[in-house]
Amino acid sequence: MTQGLSAQSFIELRARERAREILDPGSFREILGPFDRLVSPWLPLQDIVTQADDGVVLARGTIDGVSAVVAAIESAFQGGSMGEVAGAKIAGALEQALLDHQKGIATRAVILFESGGVRLQEANLGLAAIAEIHAAIVALRQYVPVVGVVAGMVGCFGGMSLAAALCSRLIVTKQARLGMNGPEVIEQEAGIAELDASDRRLIWSLIGGAQRHATGLADDLVEDDVTEIANAVRRAFKDGCPDLHRSADVDGYRAKIAAIDPAVALSPVELRQTWGTK
């Protein structure tokens, strides 16, 4: 993992630019873009301003000359939260890629995660859309790797963290955070004695990209660099699908959980020693 002076931050890019950088130069073509006005019908009812793409950019193009679709979540809109429309856009794109494969058309799929989870204002509809994303990933990964990237800005939490876990290959940076519940939610619900959300060193030692990679919950740890991340995505497709997807390794994770005494709180270092594979 190296980073030269010419590195360009991936994290600082907006979703549309992130998708463009993942695809081959000149192949970016946005689908269901802002002019289609697929906005949330629920946010105006709560006096919340909508965004023309509902926080998800879908792009078709090619990766190493092969047809590809990229779904990029915009963290700057509602914290990358998944509502009915945003979630349906991602699920629909993955389902279309599945149809392509069933017709003999190879289509690669990449999800650029940056999400706090379900959009609370859309509650059940958002959760249903996330479940559709989960189902679409599992169906599609039988044909082609589904590659996820958590670069960092918001992180990846809630139901979308499960979507990341279902991906065939998960790429993270040191700045990424990945967890079922965000630290602020844990502090709010369980108190600061349980977790101080302002303790950045502690938070990243628990759920940061390096820790997730070291404990086998992410596959590639790369620098925050456009070229490094784009190359990691390309390597993932060259490597193909794993023999056993992480989420299908039920026996393996049962054994790992059984090796932990719930009465004893493990430190991040001890968890690496217990679960570490890298």
UniProtKB/TrEMBL annotation:
Phylogenetic placement of the source organism: Bacteria, Pseudomonadati, Pseudomonadota, Alphaproteobacteria, Emcibacterales
Molecular function terms from GO: acetyl-CoA carboxylase activity; carboxy-lyase activity; transferase activity
The name this protein goes by in its record: Biotin-independent malonate decarboxylase subunit beta
UniProt entry tagged with the keyword Transmembrane: yes
Gene Ontology biological process terms in this record: carbohydrate metabolic process; fatty acid biosynthetic process; malonyl-CoA biosynthetic process
Broad class of enzyme this protein falls into: lyase
Known EC number: 4.1.1.88
NCBIfam families registered for this protein in UniProt: malonate_beta (TIGR03133), PRK07189.1 (NF005530)
Organism: Govanella unica
Gene3D superfamilies in alphabetical order: 2-enoyl-CoA Hydratase, Chain A, domain 1
Positions of the CoA carboxyltransferase N-terminal domain: 1-245
Transmembrane segments: 150-172
Record's keyword terms, sorted: Lyase, Membrane, Transferase, Transmembrane, Transmembrane helix
Pfam family, any one: Carboxyl_trans
InterPro entries in the cross-refs: AcCoA_carboxyl_beta (IPR034733), ClpP/crotonase-like_dom_sf (IPR029045), COA_CT_N (IPR011762), Malonate_beta (IPR017556)
Keyword Transcription attributed: no
